[in-house]
Amino acid sequence: MKRIFLGLTIALLAPASSMAASASEQSCRACHVMDTTLVGPGFNQIAARYKGDAEAIQKLKTSMLEGSAGKWGTIAMPANKELTAAEADRFAHWIMSLNK
Ligand code: HEC
Question: pTM score, two decimals?
Answer without folding.
Answer: 0.85
